[in-house]
Amino acid sequence: MPSVPPILYSPSSSRFRQLGLQTFILVLAMLTLWVLWRFEPSGQVFYPRCAFHEATGWQCPGCGGTRAVHALLHGRWREAWHHNPLAILLIPPFAGLLAREVVGRTTTRWWRFPTMPVPGWIAFGIAVVGFGVVRNLV
Fold it and tell me: Which residue from 10, 15, 104 is spatially nearest to 2, judged by alpha carbons?
């Protein structure tokens, strides 16, 4: 607990602000998904361009992720996999972490996820870089 006089610190107002921030993030995420569903990434000027691809001509591990999510939103699984299989494989863990954050912050009950040791993170990094290299060689 911070060393602030009780009159200035109200847990309920802090929780209200936090809930407001979560609502804002949820609305922003829904708006982003709607824009991604409505406007195809190819040929639109407001989608970000990959600086690595622009500089080298190679695809980075994330290239095609926006197009993959657009295809998924339209139910085109095979096309999404073709654009970026790594992005498709990372959606479930990302959704789980997002759900953990929302539930934990709104109910103060945190789900416990197994922690990954440093060698696991190193292996994950090598796998992502390896994916980036292999996708440009094939």
Answer: 10
Structure-token pair, residue 23: 């609502």
Q: Where are the domains of the chain?
A: 11-137
pLDDT at 107: 75
How far apart (Å, rounded) are the C-alpha atoms in residues 125 and 119? 10
Q: What is the pLDDT of residues 49-92, one digit of tens each?
A: 889 999 999 999 999 999 999 999 999 999 999 999 999 999 88
User: What are the structure tokens assigned to 8, written together?
Assistant: 């200035």
Cα–Cα distances in Å, from 21 out to 78, 90, 110?
Answer: 36, 25, 18
Q: What is the DSSP string of 25-36?
A: HHHHHHHHHHHH
63, two tokens: 């290239």
For residues 37 and 70, the answer to whether their CB atoms sit within 8 Å is yes
DSSP category for residue 64? T
